[in-house]
Amino acid sequence: MKSEPSIRRLPPELVAHIFINSLTHPRHPKKNEAPLNISSVCTRWRQIAISTPAIWSSISITFRRGSLPFAYPSILKNWISRSCNHGFSFTLTWEYQKYAVGAIDLDPSIVASIDVLVENCVKWRNISVDAYEDITDLTTRLLAVIPERTKQLRQIAIVAPEFAIASLFTSPLNNLTHLSVSTDCDFTAFQNNVPMESLVSLSIQADILDVTEVISRAPRLQQAKFYLKLYSDEEYPTEPITLPDLHTLDLDVEGGGFDDVEVVDVRLCRFLAYLRLPALKTLFVDLGYIGDMVMETVHWGGIVDLLSRSGATLHNLEIRTNDTASLPQFLEANQSLKHFAITNNLLSEDNQLIDRLIDDPDSITCCHTQLCPNLESLRITCHEYSSVEDAMTEICSFINVSAGEGQIHARPLVLVVPSVTWESLSLPSGSCLEIVQDDDWVARRQHDIYEKIGAHW
């Protein structure tokens, strides 16, 4: 008697678990990938797949001008139906067409797809909408249901030029924990004081007044990424904003076109003056921006005052700025740093900086005041406007200094270098360094320093 194949004797629950963990993109499957593939193998597998809501609870959709290659409306109806009470998540991308001309008319199948999503908005769990062309019809139709009809939303990511952030605060979203928003929309006044009590991770690229309004309504923020558009001279709220749980801040700035750097600096300092971040441990900073056709750099004063005012003990600092005259003074004021990242350009501008980062302060030969006495790792990054050769020069200088000091007079450090330079580097005898390539380092510290900020699933 012929025995039944082993695969057919597995419990359905185990088969379903294997299905879920075998998806190529389990959180963003495409319409022509599994779970459709695994549900087509045999009748038994199809029955198990169809009755496993988690398999059908998330999809990735791409819209483009013209007809769609797949029948999205029917696909969406099937997937949403099979997701049952598991909730439904989607990533929707409008494929940018650089050379397309003329008015953008939405294909009927796109409109029908949006209608299906809107009709089922009460099921939305995590959504990502990326339509950075001015597809007003698409974004308006889709996003108008938030927040009144989407109470189960946990994560939102929106990239849309005309999206008004204030519209998210017309009704509570008590389950929302992660939010990412990028918009060019002018500031729209917030009409009420609806909080986002559960929001812990925020990434926002918007007018500085929008940023102020959002964070004032998110008292439990733990991570934040601010891309500040410093265009406005309007007054900010007079009450300070305290974020007692915020441990990671990524700060980037965009100036007001032809505004002098002094004007932009005042705007940044005015914003930072309202913040109190007592739990801040990790700070990423890029104070450079394109001014009147040249790179400008905002001063460090506002950030120094923020840390001092907050009483924060900073452990990790990554500087992406290409120029700052007061860097040593800033480092001297932050003795608790354990990890520090710097562009190779900054390293080359101060001849003593390498020595002060390497020297052991207990050495009788040390003639400098040591910077960052608790430093454990140093990351040298190659600025986007710099060549790899320039980065190699500074990295080799650092390695040579560490070897020249000798094991007695130099402290051990993990030196993190750009991955493209890693194979060309070697440590001379006596060096106290451990060299790690950039990609490996980020993967190693993904759980703390480089934890993703904003919506991601």
From TrEMBL:
Residues annotated as domain F-box: 7-61
Protein name according to UniProt: F-box domain-containing protein
Pfam families: F-box-like (PF12937)
InterPro entries reported for this sequence: F-box_dom, LRR_dom_sf
